[in-house]
Amino acid sequence: MAAITGVGAYAPRFRITSEAFEDAWGQFHAAGVTQKAVPSADEDALTMGYEAATRALEAAETDPDEIDWLAFASSRPPTAEEDLTARLGAMVTLSESATRHAFTGSTRAGTRALWAALDALEADSTTALVVAADAPQGDPDDGIDHAAGAGSAAFVLEREGPAEIVDRAEYSAPYPGTRFRNAGEDETQGLGITQYDRRAFTETIGGAVAGLEDEPTPDAVAIQAPDGKLPYRAAGAAGVGTEEIRAAATVHELGDLGAASVPVSLATALADGYESILAVSHGSGAGADAVVVSVASETRQSDGDVPAVTALEGDDPLTYAEYLRQRGIVTTGPPSGGGAYVSVPSWRRSIPQRYRLEAGRCSECDALSFPPDGACDDCGALADYEPIELAGEGTIEAVTTISQGGAPPEFAEQQAQSGDYAAAIVALETDGASETHRKDGDHAERNSADRSSGQRQREEGVDSGDETVSVPAMGTDADPADFSVGERIETTIRRIYTQEGVTRYGFKIRPAGE
Amino acid sequence: MRDAYLVGAGQSDYGAFPAESYRSLFRTAFDAATDSVPKGLEAGDVDEAFVGTLGVGGRQLGLSGPAVTEHVGLDGVPTTRVENACAASGFAVRQAVQAVKSGMADVVLAGGFEIMSDMSSDATKYWLGVSGETEWERLSGTTFSGVYAQMASVHMAQYGTTREHLSRVAVKNHANGAKNPHAQLGFECSLEDAQSAPVVADPLNLYHCCPTSDGAACALIVSEDVVDDYTDDPIRVAGVGAGSDTVGLFQRDTYTGVPASQRAAETAYEMADIEPDALDFAEVHDCFAIAELLAYEDLGFCEPGEAGQLIESGATELGGELPVNTSGGLKSKGHPIGATGAGQVVEAYKQLSGNAGARQVETPTRGLTHNVGGSGGAAVVHVFEKEGEVSA
């Protein structure tokens, strides 16, 4: 059929415990969830999707150019209309001609994307990237919101590889009202008719599994997890044991991941080395997909391991009040005074820099400029620039922590949600430089302490491995105190700000090795 | 080229004045400036005007120059609005000096104004921040407090400059401002106050940041051909220098100095044919405490990296070797953006004409003003000199 050749998974760093909910509400409505992941104010399904996608590509050692088919799945994409696969594809530097599909409207969207990838690989496509990311949201006093977590998974699929998809089936039956969000509404809700909801869940899951060609005997089961109990109630219907469900469960630590629930469980099962995995999703409406993944034994492949890069750990605890702030539930939105105006067309012109860190090499003096625009920062020549993609690693040259009152108004809402942040100038390296840099322990200090000597190194040898260019960047993913002059950083892509209803995404920095 | 002379200068109070308009404040400054001319000066004498304003709030973005000069009766006089962010009216003074030196005008008004207190703090921040590099620097989450804090972080890492050094700038400037009846924050503060204020952009706390202000200031620049009509104690514009640079800090070769200030100072000293040690006082651009320390180094008051020791030595206090910001500076006197550069010239005029009251420097001959736009995208320096005593 097709095979998974690389796995990526990601969850935000923040966690809130069921006890924190009990302290706030007197009770907690998400059975079996002990803690869950909470996206920070600058994260959404698109940025989490980017985090997982870059990791899957890294794991598969696949050049983004080779991807000819992309799917992005989320029950809550940040835009209800506007295809985000164009932006996601640009963020992970896919070819403009790669096929793109968006899947939404259901917690089953993640496995629908996987399903479509299998069809595509059976047809003309050669290398597919499936990205599922989600952060469900309900009314604050509703079980859907208590369970709601955040996370993402991504898979590179090719026609052959270590983790073969050997069987699949689907099943649908009408069960309206178990979980829905009407057009124009922000919160997902359900009628909460317990037995009816359970029946919808078990009937569809049982139906999908029954439709498989061979009865599966999995050692791990990645099953849809709207809370921490429902998956186990479907064990009988799916014909599997609760131990196998627990083996791939992420809901207890990460919460309900919506359309990313089954993909993240599948990713962890593959990363943990399970060899026979049943993945069964459920989406309200209702329907289910069952997919059987078999990791090739060593007789069939020289190396049975499935390459995986996952970042699902998080240990930054939130109080319930911080949780409400972080999610923007108790903040009042952008201030009325207006923010810096960068028009959408101007922003679009900077996308090569915002997404891919594209600097320019001056054709006169070989120095780097960022952004590659206007006269050369070094020699002042009005020369052409050769585009150079920076490596996304570097060193902090100057930094401050912006406290309440110090933020520009367009960041006031973000600061109300997530508090103080670091704002830095960082020296980003070219691809060749990062290796040398890691070996050269005291370079960071020298570079920050004496920029003119850094400048000289630049001039003396383009290939010396010490080439950097300075860019301003906001800190994310860590306490602002973790950013200081001389420290190593890496870049990621986050929400920068929203103006005129259009969210602009671009690079931010976090401490290296996070 | 002809010599240019400063024959009068005056300002409104700086502060928050809900009952005033930008025009009424400008009129107060204009009247104070003409009244300060020893032999008097009438509106009809003025040949040309340069007016600095950023236009905070967008109240009169276009033709904001004529909007104030016609209000003070300069009908028909060519008026040009000068915009270089916080250095707007410092550059207006420079334009006035150029007009006089070129021979195109004999009596030129250089002024500035701003109203910043009549809008929400978010709206104010919008208008202040948009003088920085918007697309990259601002959208990395900084306004000027953040950018200056970044400079401070490097100065501290590189030279061992401390938070206490920053706080000492506030203590000194408040001590001076307490002696200036025009000052917005005319009260003294203790080192402890200045150390323990809420953080705005680490390492800068509230006492390391200037306030937002309403205010206006005017200076009168005349040619050597007419100076005798206005005064018997001429103050010559001995040196003028200016420079510009990348708007964004991240594109500069240094974060621990302001190259535009260095260029401006070099040019001004050369024209005045002096070394920095010939100065008796200086008004420098202390929008943030670190900016005053950087100015010590950029203007040659000390070697690079030694500004912390200089403030600690007390040399820049009133009564010290080189008093800096006797007016209270932007920190205590206030910072109505477009008025600030001309306001510094008001202090220079008061000191050199012996009218600085309780903060008078003892018989000064020569003073400097230093006005910076943004984080150093533009800077202008003037050296003023009491003529009689120099030639003697």
TrEMBL record, chain A:
PANTHER family under this entry?
3-OXOACYL-[ACYL-CARRIER-PROTEIN] SYNTHASE 3, BETA-KETOACYL-[ACYL-CARRIER-PROTEIN] SYNTHASE III
Name this protein carries in UniProt: ChsH2 rubredoxin-like zinc ribbon domain-containing protein
Q: Where is the composition biased (Basic and acidic residues)?
A: 434-449
Task: Output one GO BP term.
Answer: secondary metabolite biosynthetic process
Q: Report any Pfam family annotated for this entry.
A: zf-ChsH2
- Record key words, sorted: Isoprene biosynthesis
Q: Where is this region: Disordered?
A: 432-483
Coiled coil located at which positions? none
Q: Where is the ChsH2 rubredoxin-like zinc ribbon domain?
A: 350-381
Molecular function in Gene Ontology: acyltransferase activity
Q: Which SUPFAM superfamilies match?
A: Nucleic acid-binding proteins, Thiolase-like
Metal-binding among keywords: no
UniProtKB/TrEMBL annotation, chain B:
Keyword list, A-Z:
Acyltransferase, Isoprene biosynthesis, Transferase
Q: Does the keyword Transferase apply?
A: yes
Cross-referenced Pfam families: Thiolase_C_1, Thiolase_N
Query: What region holds the Thiolase C-terminal domain?
Result: 241-385
All copies of domain Thiolase N-terminal, residue ranges: 14-225
- For this entry, list what GO says about its biological process: isoprenoid biosynthetic process
Kindly give the InterPro entries that the UniProt entry links to this protein: Thiolase, Thiolase-like, Thiolase_C_2, Thiolase_N
* Molecular function (Gene Ontology), one example: acyltransferase activity, transferring groups other than amino-acyl groups
Protein name, entry field: Propanoyl-CoA C-acyltransferase
Species source reads: Natrinema pallidum DSM 3751
